[in-house]
Amino acid sequence: MSDKSVDCSIRGGLVVRGSGITREDIAVKDGRIVADADGYGDSDVGRVIDASGLYVMPGIVDAHNHPENADRIETFSLSAAFGGVTTVVPFVRNRRRYGVEGTVTDMIEEFMDEAARTSYLDYGIHAILLGDDDVEDQVPRMMSMGVISFKMYMTYPRRGMMMPDERMLKAMELAAQDGGIAMVHAENGYCIDYLVEKSIEAGHTGREHYAPTQPRILEIEAANRAATYAQVTGCPLYIVHLSAREMLGVLERFRGADMNLFGETCPQYLDLTNQAMLDHGALAKIGPPLREREDNEAMWRGLSSGLIDTIASDFCGYEKSQKALGGEGEGSIFDAAFGGNWVEQMLCVAFQEGVNAGRITLPRLVQVMCENPAKIFGLYPKKGSLDPGADADIVLFDPSLEHVLSAEEQHCIADYTMFEGKRVVGKPVLTMQRGEILVENGIMRGRMGQAEYLPGNPSLAAYAPGGHGVS
Ligand SMILES: [Zn+2]
Prior knowledge:
The protein is of the alpha/beta class and about 475 residues long. The chain has helices spanning about 75-80, 105-120, 135-145, 165-175, 190-200, 215-235, 245-255, 265-270, 275-280, 295-305, 320-325, 345-355, 360-375, and strands at about 5-10, 15, 20-25, 25-30, 30-35, 45-50, 55-60, 60-65, 85-90, 120-125, 125-130, 150-155, 180-185, 235-240, 260-265, 310, 395-405, 425-435, 435-440, 445.
């Protein structure tokens, strides 16, 4: 090959960016996308990938996941790669409530060690700040490690996870000072515990009693409160897993006040309802709860109109037997574990219900699943972009492949899916990370231990003065 050569050329596909769809070739050299892809003859190209009939998209950036149960970063990232994800940003927290000594910073160091050995995908890190974290000490320490996003729970007081309001204000102040961003799980935990206790006292512990103890007003109240605190402290805020239709009004109101406020939703809040809880009990237990069809539709409207910025998985991988403990059969739904393993089906579900169903455009899907999460957390344009200079993190997606989603096909340890039996058209057929093929035609060709840590860069974040903003 001549000097002017590339490692790989992806030819004949339809390239999808947030700005639109174009027919062009993409060329890759030394792990990055290079300009003038059609300027290379066959003899200048290491490998030609025929993408005719396929969409060429940036890899998905999954900015919300918890690989800390049966599925840790190894099997979570494996499963994610099969689902078209190329970048993950997991949450790390202190584990004192499990008897593990150490600060959240110590846990981040441990996680980085584990991820360097076992992750298949490049990873950033979000911290979770719990009520017992020394935020004055920890926030600046984490910022200097490239951890620029700090999630706080406004719920789960009995589980020792809730951040008291006055500490949340302090954490927001510190994050804002250093160019970071706060994230909140917006639900009023005192009210939830009050309602749960009353329900248990009345002997109402079945699956049908779950949703009534977690009403939508508690999400709305907490989101208003968090956004108010963010406004008072001048801290950018990202509200995770929006689920209730009224959240669109909350976003609209505070955006109007010219705040840096971002909203996320998840495939489960776009496609599932409380019927899944009634059908499957503990397996469908998540917080906030699955709601109603009108809420699914509102989430799509928010994504389409620009009020909601991202889709992320909120992956939490339990085996069925662990997840169902106490919740299936005779046990109390209130004793069952929270969370679901939605990452591998996320793109297929979003494409089916969003693009195929005409609720959002394909470029908008790329904005909310690739570009915006990278922009918000200071990883853009290295990640989430197909422009020259970006990492060659690419997904080839076949929009005509019809298939049925099933846990039998998934690659995580979690052995069930709430999307079991769902018929979809469209599937990722190739995942590439930094120019290396990870997954091709359903086979993992990559290796663990090749992944890179991605420190968040506050000066590139969407909310930074002169930052990329989000569309
Ligand atoms: Zn979560």
